Amino acid sequence: MPVLELTTLIPNRTPEQVLDFCLEGGNFPKIFPERFTPLGDIDLTNLRIEAGRQFRFRHWMFNFIPSNWTVVIREVGEHHFIDEMLKGPMAAFRHEHRVAAGEGGTLYTDRVTYAAMEGAPLEWLVVNAYMQRIFEARHRNMLRLLG
């Protein structure tokens, strides 16, 4: 399975501040670069990420292709949390969010392990570049909001 890992230094922020920002559900739409719609009774303005919570949302890939996701928060720790797709457009999707002290700020890392339903050919043609673009945009947005 492909693995995408990106790390960004967020200056003048502690790991606790960065992780706290990520654990507030209302910040998800601020960093996600494409349109999405919560499904069910999710109130993003009053949502805290916690282990065991499940969420459903519609992600508009390329801002116009609807794709429904069900994700679960597998783990929340002092310096990380992990979410995993239970149902959605991928054969597998596991997303680790990690923070660590860095020189002058916090190192924020996204590590995503994924697999396309159609396998490696689709990953090579579309999915790998799409994932790279989405997560680079997330990191730019994190820097804009926290930097």
Automatic annotation (TrEMBL):
It comes from the Bacteria. This is SRPBCC family protein.
